[in-house]
Amino acid sequence: MTRASERALEAVREMILRGDVAPGLRLGEVELAERLGVSRTPVREALTRLAAEGLVEISPNRGARVTSWSIAELEGVFDLRAALEPRATARAVSRADAADLAALDALATEMLAVGSPGPGQDLDALVPLNREFHGRLVTLADHPALAAALAGAIHAPIVLRNFHAYGDASLLRSLSHHAEIVAAARAGDPEWARAVMTAHIHNARAVMVRAAADAQNEKETGS
Amino acid sequence: MTRASERALEAVREMILRGDVAPGLRLGEVELAERLGVSRTPVREALTRLAAEGLVEISPNRGARVTSWSIAELEGVFDLRAALEPRATARAVSRADAADLAALDALATEMLAVGSPGPGQDLDALVPLNREFHGRLVTLADHPALAAALAGAIHAPIVLRNFHAYGDASLLRSLSHHAEIVAAARAGDPEWARAVMTAHIHNARAVMVRAAADAQNEKETGS
DNA sequence: CCCCCCTACATTGCACACAATTCGAGGCCG
DNA sequence: CGGCCTCGAATTGTGTGCAATGTAGGGGGG
User: Fold this and answer.
1) Where do runs of H (alpha helix) occur along B96-189?
2) What pLDDT, in 10s, does the model give residues B62-116?
3) pLDDT at position A42, please?
4) Angle at B21 (CA atoms; ends B17, B24), nearest 5 degrees
5) Where's the HTH gntR-type domain (chains A, B) (predicted)?
6) Under DSSP, is residue A63 helix (H, G, I), strand (E, B) or coil?
7) Do B52 and A52 touch (CB under 8 A)?
8) Chain B hits for A80, Cβ within 8 Å
9) Cα(A86)–Cα(A176) distance, integer angstroms
């Protein structure tokens, strides 16, 4: 049986990323422990690590809450991704071997298949594929500090779910970008890949900031 | 009494940053617990958080070790700082008010006082001042994602101690940079500050990479 | 003689029990 | 009737014991 703290970490992270628990909500230690069938100890460790990742915030003696993001902070995340991910992508492209290219190609192709509008479109299936694609690029860049910086900043929450926020046009752009990055990698052209990734992040930024603003307006109007 | 886990965190972090424990060395839970007068529980939490910061590495069932850095990884850290800190500095400069300027000025001035060659030079006193200076700039930038990225990547270990690695010339350059950044801030000129910070990081990079290479050569020769 | 396995020890991982702190509710006083 | 205080329940922080895992040393087999 795999480590209980690992399972707890994955389970809670998945809960947050899938949106099962809303931002700002309390995460009680006993509740999580019972739900996962472990004691509070591994749950506490998982929460500590998630706090370091930025997915939750812990106040002393007051427990853990899912992190919530202002629009300004969300824009900051994309600023940072725009600064770092193209750099990582360029490095990754110049280091990828045939097996890496095949794996990236498979991911991009599958994302196009399940993400294209029409019957069979499954926006939720895109989430893990997208994570895998970007994760592989970062790993391929072989730059631990950069990987740590991205991990420390992206905080995937709103960012990595919510493909539902994309309209058809921007979603297709996004999926095409992945394929184009693979093409650039095959061509061994880091600058091409860098440019596409830059566009990719800016496209995502436009979608996400718009979605966040809409959500906020809706909430203010509703109340 | 302040939280035991906080004390443990600070104590262990300080131990590592001050170089009291060499990189690669094991950090036994019981040993630390006895040394700090607490039980293993807060020590474990401290180690978990330090692992998230990157100061230690934890292998399952095999304990925690102080992270050690290859020269390539060290260069990666400075690449990242060169990409992010100038950006943060520019933002900070355009947001600083009179009180911030005074505080930065005081820090820069004091660093010049205690760091200048001659009697009274105290390289170790520079360490906390330097941390404070850079930390204030990052805070002033008011950009949580960027702050998280830097925190996640810098991992201060070798970087933040070791002012001893600087020669007189590069040390004076470094101290002057701080003062010049304050001047740029007073002038309300973000681009000026950005440029100086860029130079500042590159200067530090040259010193640190050189020092790391020397240390490695020395070790290889000696063995 | 070298390699593999097997046993004993040390250390970490987890669960549980207790102490300390926080937040809310009810009552008391002004 | 409103505000403050006190008491209580719930939750987090810490200590300790036990089980599981990794490691080192010695003995047996090839």
Assistant:
1) 98-115, 123-141, 144-154, 157-160, 168-186
2) 999 998 888 888 889 899 999 999 999 999 999 999 999 999 999 999 999 999 8
3) 97
4) 105
5) 2-69
6) strand
7) yes
8) 84, 145-146, 149
9) 16
Cβ < 7 Å from strand C, A residues 49-88: 61-62
Contact B53 A53 (CB under 8 A): no
Q: Which one of 3.30.565.10, 1.20.120.530, 1.10.3720.10, 1.10.8.60 gives the CATH number of domain B71-222?
A: 1.20.120.530
Q: Which two tokens stand for residue B57?
A: 């590495």
Give start and end residues of each alpha helix (H) in chain A. 4-17, 29-36, 40-53, 71-95, 98-115, 123-141, 144-154, 157-160, 168-186, 190-222
As given in the structure block, the two tokens for residue A153 are: 């900043």
CATH architecture type of domain A4-66: Orthogonal Bundle (1.10)
Q: What is the rounded CA–CA span in Å between residue A71 and residue A81?
A: 15
Residues 6+ apart with CB under 8 A from B24: B65, B66, B68
In chain A, which segments carry CATH 1.10.10.10? 4-66
| Distance of alpha carbon A97 from alpha carbon A84, whole angstroms | 22
* pLDDT per residue as tens digits for the range A176-215: 999 999 999 999 999 999 999 999 999 999 998 888 887 7
User: What's the token pair of residue A58?
Assistant: 């812990």
Q: Please list the residue range(s) of chain A that carry CATH number 1.20.120.530.
A: 71-222
